[in-house]
Design a protein that fits this description.
Blueprint: E1 16-22, H1 29-39, E2 44-49, H2 56-64, E3 70-74, H3 81-94, E4 99-102, H4 114-120, E5 126-130, E6 137-139, H5 143-160, E7 172-175, H6 176-182, H7 193-204, E8 209-213, E9 215-217, H8 228-246
Helix pairs in contact: 5-8, 7-8
Length: 269
């Protein structure tokens, strides 16, 4: 992928993997793949499908048959967002990608912003596609959903004292050493709490975090995976993490040389 505007001699990520978790995204997945490859030529894409009953995995498998830059990892059962991302991150680290981008399959995250997120890694360890910095916005959301999202982010930022405007963002780019350092593959949370946990760990370990404005679009097809159970997990875990900090516990830095997912444990289909 060509990165324009980066400083001469900068440590620019060369090999880039986009990780996309899917469950029942047959209506969206091919469109997002096409937009990624059109917007960021040269990147590789890994779809981690949670055994979608609507045939999402079959569509990706057929699409990937004719390309060398698209891969599919199929889970054994529906295990959730966090598990899918841990699988994808482990797959990427085992194959020595320089940078890993994470994003949703429902076209709420603009693939056209991938080059900007990766370019930000020249001077940062993590780049966040943010709805809540100047220039960012959310389109097509009801007022009630906007209020819930902003309230949730405010709760996370206040309780965990995070210097990040969009703490629940799921559109991020990571340097490989950053993912290793925060122990992303060893994390335990699931659902959208997974996004919060990684941002919290990155902040506490002093990683350089950039926030870039994006326009977040509501999905046109398929159903949202948000539920009361997912929201409750986020509320309770965030509070538990802060209480742990107050009692003297901090996120542990993982050795950059550590690996938790070998090639033998990854099953590419």
């Amino acid at each position: 992928m060509s990165l324009t505007g980066t400083p001469r001699g900068a440590d620019v990520p060369r090999s880039i993997l986009v990780v996309i978790p899917t469950y029942d995204e047959a209506e969206n997945v091919l469109a997002v793949l096409e937009r990624i490859h059109r917007s960021a030529p040269g990147v590789h894409v890994l779809v981690v499908d949670d055994r979608s009953p609507d045939g999402t995995g079959d569509r990706v498998r057929e699409y990937a048959r004719h390309r060398t830059d698209t891969f599919l990892e199929t889970g054994r059962a529906k295990t959730g967002l966090g598990t899918a991302y841990r699988t994808g991150f482990g797959w990427a680290l085992a194959r020595d990608y320089d940078a890993i981008v994470q994003m949703d399959a429902d076209l709420s995250h603009p693939p056209e912003q991938i080059p900007a997120l990766v370019a930000a890694l020249v001077d940062h360890d993590v780049a966040v596609g943010s709805r809540y910095v100047e220039g960012g916005r959310v389109d097509d959301w009801k007022r009630s959903r906007r209020l819930v999202s902003r309230a949730g982010n405010r709760y996370v930022r206040i309780v965990l004292r995070l210097p990040v405007s969009d703490a629940t963002a799921g559109f991020k780019a990571w340097r490989r050493q950053a993912l290793i350092g925060i122990g992303a593959v060893e994390s335990t949370s699931n659902g959208y709490c997974f996004q919060i946990e990684n941002t919290w760990r990155a902040s506490r370990l002093g990683l350089r975090i950039a926030e870039l404005p994006i326009t977040f679009m509501d999905r046109d097809a398929g159903e949202s995976k948000m539920s009361g159970k997912i929201a409750l997990e986020a509320v309770t875990r965030v509070l538990a993490w802060r209480l742990g900090e107050l009692s003297g516990c901090r996120p542990a830095r993982v050795s950059p040389g550590s690996r938790t997912a070998s090639d033998e444990r990854m099953r590419v289909r």
